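Re: Re: ligand-bound prediction request (bumping)

Still looking for help on this. To restate: I need the protein modeled with 4AD bound, output as structure tokens. Inputs repeated here so nobody has to scroll up.
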Amino acid sequence: MQGRTDCKDFSANLTRGVRSGWTSWDSLLNQAMRQSVKHLLNSESAQAAVELSGWVRTRRDSKDFSFMELNDGSCLQGIQVIIDAGIPGSENVGKMNTGASVAVKGELVESPGKGQSWEVRATEVELLGEVPEDFPLQKKGHTPEFLRSIAHLRPRTNLYGAVFRMRSRLSYAVHRFFNQRDFTYVHTPIITASDCEGAGEMFRVTTNEAGKPEEDFFGKKAYLTVSGQLEGETYACALSNIYTFGPTFRAENSNTTRHAAEFWMIEPEMAFCNLEGDMDLAEDFMKFLVKDVLENNEGDLSIFEKFVDKGLRPRLEKLASSGFERMSYTEAVEQLQKSGKSFEYPVEWGVNLQSEHERYLCEEVVNGPLTVYNYPKSIKPFYMRANDDGKTVTAMDVLVPGVGEIIGGSQREERYDLLKAAMEHHELDLENYGWYLDLRRYGTVPHAGFGAGFERLLMYVTGMQNIRDVIPFARTPGHCEF
Ligand code: 4AD
Ligand code: MG
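Reply:
Sorry for the wait, this slipped through. Here it is.
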């Protein structure tokens, strides 16, 4: 057990006896001494001296002792602590109510109770922070809407604790996936002067709102990035395989359960790669993440299955073990037209697929993940590579049941003349994008990449229905609390 050769010193401290208030608990505030609840629950043996702290979930008192469940957020479960009446600190047990913070010293012993192997028999307890009666999380069964209004407290609930541990594990899995494949992690800028998607949905960054752009901080208009792709391409055209993983911002006024104004995106970019290689990587990426979630979820999946989505595990297992269907946009439109369904947005070749169409295709036509490729040129950004048919570009979207679009990508136009013409067609200011054209002037290469919405991935692996519930502090139209 790391950092614990000092058990003897610790017992000496205990037997020194005098509880001189806070100072006798200093060791507990040292991470090397404190053990997490997760660590204790996974212990291989009993331990004579343990120290832990956390927040009280529940407490039951009897005449001679109290049972307290303590949770420190390291895992879903709390650990049971038995506090005998009369031990130092037990005079405050009556104040150790749900939500109060408590520190414990004691012994880790086998638990006779069901569903847990270990419990802590306290030798000393300390009430660190009391909780008044207005603590909003005393009762169970709050609505997601209410919990969003207390976003600073909701990670203390079982469900949201699990969501945010999952968010952390999934980030780590993203880095592992690319690291195993020798991709270089590039930090693309958050403040940018280019509009990657050309959709004009950017937040302006300014210190001089009323002034002229040339008098502003950067001497020109600047924005929060909508995508790190263009800057990512510059690094792929030097280091071959790169990825970015960071916050992106969209000022689109879409008040849906799948759009946020601030969200995180993972964007790999590969030199010497075509659309097929791009679709293959997207599929491998999704499968890797889902397998990782199935294998390393530390019990958190169980709470999503119980409270959010009963079919979660089979759905994830299916994705991890079968190939994604692929379908061209033209085929997708044919499928939608022959469905006989009356969609809110009618379908004809050339329209953008709406969420209702995407979900019909993956939920009812293929019943699983689906990659749609070769979209009409007229509905896609300037940088996508033109196909020989003159009508379509090498775009691809990965659609999954329940969420719809989770990944969007393309092969990039690497031919200088065609790219320049596309930029002119989209009325881009070529002076601003000279650096981007340079990539095609100096040793151009076929290259491709995609963007995966991190929150949408999280919605998929947890079953959570609203993007506001998988990001710690959601920013959506009209909402920027905290
Ligand atoms: O399809 P998008 O707009 O693609 C791009 O930005 C490309 N430049 C990516 C690239 O090729 N490097 O966005 C990519 C993904 C979407 O598939 C979706 O999962 C997510 O980002 N996304 C959003 N997630 C949450 N809220 C929003 N407002 C989102 N907009 C896009
Ligand atoms: Mg897209």
